[in-house]
Each structure stands twice: as C-alpha cells, then as structure tokens.
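Two proteins, back to back. First:
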Amino acid sequence: MTGPARAHRAARPAEADAASDTAPLTQLPSPTGPRRSRRWFAGMGGARGIDWVACGVAAGLAMIWVVAYSGWRVGSKADWFFGASVFSAVVVALWLALTIQRQALGNAADAVDQLRRELAAVAARSAEELAHARELHRLQGEFHRAEVEAHRELARVQRAQLLAQQQRQATIDVSRAIGAHTHTLAMLWDQGANIVRIEDPQEREQALQPIFERISQVVNDFAVELANAHVLVEDDRLHAALNRVNDAVLMAIRVAEDVHAAFIDGRTPEPNPIPPVQLLLRERAAEARHLAWELLSAGLGKA
C-alpha cells in the first residue's frame, strides 16, 4: 500500500465527517459533476499520482531515445522494445490495479458516508415520529380523562336533578294524603252532625265507626308517604318541613278523637275545631311543596 493511498484514506473520513456535520441530513450529494472528477483525481493518487505518471512517461521517452537515437550499442533493438513493452505493460497493470483499488476504497468510503447520513436521517425521523407519537398519546390521554370527567359530572347533575324531582314528587304525595285527611275530617263533622241526633250511644258509635276507620286508613296512608319522603329527602330543611306536617297530622288526629268522643256522648263541640286543623294541615303541606320546588329549581339552575 503506497503512501498516497494511506494519505487519501486518512483524509477522506475527516472530509466526510466535516461534510456530514455541515450538510443537511436529508440532502445527499450528486454522484455526477465535480464529485466524479474529484473521485477520478483521487483514484490516481492526487497530485503525487500525476507526478508518478509524468516520471514514467519521461523514463519511457529516455529509454526510447537511448535505444533508437543515441547510437549506443546495447544489443538488439527488438529485444529492447520487447522488454520495454513488457515492462510498460506490467507497470500499467500495476498502476491500473492500484487505481482500481483506490477507486474501490473511495467508493466504499462514499457508501459509508452516504449510509451514515441516511442512518442519521432515519434516526432523526424516527425520533421525530416517536416524539409526535408520545405527544399524540398524551393528548389522547388528556382528552379521555376530560371526557370521563365530563361524563361523571353529567351523571352527577342528572342524579341530583332526578333526586330533586323524586323529593318533589314525594312531597306531592304527602300533600295528597293531607288532602284526603282533611276530607275525612270534614266528612266526620258533616256526618257526625246527623249522627249526634241518634238517642242510643251504641248506635251513634256504630254509625261513627266507618268514618273513624276511614280516618285511620287515611292516617296510615299518610304515614307511608311520609316515611317514603324521609327516605328520598337529603335536605335538612325539607326534613324539618315534613316533620312539621307530621306534627299537624298528629294534632288533627287528636282533634278527630275529641270530636268522635263528643259525638258518641251526644254533644256537638263548640266552636268547630275541624276548620283550623284543616287550615294548618294545608299550610304545612304547602310549605313542604314550596321548599321541594325551590330545591328542584336550584338544582336545575346549577345544571
């Protein structure tokens, strides 16, 4: 291996590294033009290879002059020409072999440089795609969490609205039971006014028995509706309103018992205690319904 070849191989990686650091990764040099001429020049060994060729030509010319024109008796000219031809052929063959070897090494170095640049470009693209994939995965995760949170919030709002509607419906059912109770109280008073004229106390008691049983049934229905309302209600103010309704019902039961006892005894209570109790029941039921509606409206407003 000659000196020019080693110098050429030592110089090419440095040039390739400098070119790979400064040139863009996605732009590859063209294999034609100045690069091809530089490769041919480098294949000859550069300026030193041209010097060797010049020396060889000069030596050949000197040998031809000595044999053909100097007049020096050095043997047969045919032998000289034959030897010179063989020597020239050997030199040319060696020179061509060295040139081909240098060109092969240059092509290999160029291929390595190109492969290095392509690998760097592929690595850069892979890193960029990986970064994009990670960013996309992060955005998808954030979107999924936001969507889940939105669904959770929607479910919470819908549950609150449904609960408020159920609470209002429960208070309406309690109010209906209150209405039935006030109706039975009025029926007790109206029919008791006629029953009180019966002379026999047992007959009066038997005549009042269906009315009082009806009142007991209405009170039981009210107790069931009130218990259901307390189960559904979560607001303390509405619990307190339902408790006030229950207190009014208990008062109405005591009044009904007193009126029932008076009618059995054959007397009519004065003044009539039924209307004030009926008014109290309606007011307490109206308060509960109004509070339940306010809670439902507040829940709808927050939604």
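And the second protein:
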Amino acid sequence: MKICYFVYDLGSYSGAAFQALNLAKRLDDPVLIFNVGSPFIGLAAPHIQVFNVAGGARHGFFKITWQLLRSNVKVIHFHGQFLLPMLIAKATGIPYVLKTTLLGDDDFDSLLRKRFGALRLWLSKRCSMNIVLSRRLLEINSEHLDSSKIKLVPNGVTVTEDSPSLPEKRNYFYFCGVISKRKQTLRSIKVFAENYAHLHEAKLFVIGPEKNYGLGKEVDAAYIDECRRYVSEAGLTDKVEFTGLLPQDEVLRVIRRCKALLFFSDFEGMPNVVLEAMASNCVPIISPMQGVGYELIGDGAGFVCNDVVPNINEIDQTILCHLPFKRAASCYSFEASAHALSKVYIQCAHLESNYPAP
C-alpha cells in the first residue's frame, strides 16, 4: 500500500522532517512525501517520491488533491499540523495519522491558541491515530481524544555497533540546535563557563545555524549577538567555538569526541540532539523540559538539572559504563519506530502487508 507523509522544511534544518525521512527509508511500502517549505533536492530512496509544495493556497489545494487521488494513497501521516491538507484528507475520506511533534506548540491543549485553533482541534480529534513522543504528550492529548487512538512511538536515532569509550573523548562539550531563547543556548554557554571551562583543554562547540534557513522567528540575530558578546566578555573566545551549520556527518564526528551535551531547552517534543548524544556515548546534561527530559534519559544515562550540574568525575564514570549508548541502543532505534508505525498504518488502512497485523 502507498503511504503519504506531510512534512515541513525537508530541505532545511528541521528535526521533525529528518525523523520522517529516516522512518520512510525503513518502510517496505512506497512513500509519497509532500514537503511544505524549504525545497528538497535529490533522491531520498528508490521507494520514496518527494513533492515540494509551493505557491498559493489554491494552487497547493489542487496539486495535493490530484496527487493523493492519482497515487491511490491509503494512509496519510501528518508530521505536525497541516490545516489545508488535513481538510483535504477529511473531505476525501483517506484515513490519516497525526504526529504531535512539540510540547507547548501542537499538543491538543496548545492548538486552541493557534489561528483557526478550534478547526485544527476538530480535525486533530478525527484522526485515525495520534502518534505522541512522550507520556506527557499522551496525558495532554488524552483529555481530548480516547486513549485507544493515541500511541506512543518515540523518535529514533542511528546507533552504530561501536560505542566511543572514555579514552577516545576529550574535555569537550557541545550545544546543538537553533541558537534561540527557547533552546536556552546562552545558559549552555554559561554552564560551561562556570563549571567546565577550567578543565584541561576544555572546549565548547556551539553547533547550529546563524542564518534563517527557513526557520522563521526562532533564529534571532540579537540573541546570537548576545551569546557571542558573553563569550567575548568572559574571555572564552579560545574555548567556545561557534561552528555554524554543519553537515550531519561532521556533527557526528564532533559529538563522538565530546563528553557531554549541554541542552537546557524550555520545551521540546523529543529532541533529536539528545538521542544523537546518547548514541555517541555522550552524556546529556539537560533541563526537565516539562517532564520530557526524565523520560529521555531514564535511570542513569544522563543528568536532568535545574541548578546543580554533575562534576567531571560523574560525567566520566557515566561514559566509562557506556550508559548513554546502552540507553539509545535499547530504546530509540529507527527500526523499532518504523516497525511500530507500519502496524499503525495497516490498522488504519485495514490492509494486509509484509508486517503482521497488530
């Protein structure tokens, strides 16, 4: 059967789109991806077809409807809120799966604060299945939708067979993501300055775009300047490196040499950056993120901090026992998430496939 995905900014710096593409690559069924926003250029995989949607609402409406009908799509999976496409799905009777991607933004409580919020909530409650990333999101959405129609499927990460050991790492720390107030980049820099900058050869990598890249208001030039000014005034220009946007393979090379991720975002769905850290046996030192932080690291794979952060000996011991790597390998594989979603698609479409019925 053919599955259809809707994503935002596949050609840009989007964690949700990155997740969607990696899941699609692991499905046996053909996948049609409608990409809204930054265009995707290239071949994703032989069984994946990408349509970049641009132009006005009327043009988008006809293009989407025509492709859905001519492609004989059986199930649509929305990775986030897509008002017009969700209306099309409802009108054409194609069953749709809705993924709630970000706590405080598209959970069902937050929808009413958006433009056309009542309509968005009405459409969301009529999905065939709602995919959530955390127990906190499940708790919120179950106030609006029967819990039998909500399934917790965590984000995935690529886990290699080799887990970097302590001798492979230096006193390196990093932040990765959009440099923004929501993600509290400046706090990461200050935590490094106050707790780890004195260590031998200590260094902090601030990895993330300093230009818009289709990310809208979240990229704040004034905030980036504030971060840079703090580094300069603290005399840390030789210890804090702003790398800008890096290719994914280069990001992973940096992470493998780092001991800890410093990430104190106000709220997230399930941040890819924490999963990638654990997959590289790098210790996440993170904020609670309204409960998501505790779910992510489990028992001992990292540290959820409000004020006090771990010392270097605690970090080294966690790496020595390979606790972050073990957590990533056991709980967050792309293959497990793709398999769980395949069973959801079969259930929604009432069709046979290569996967056993749920």
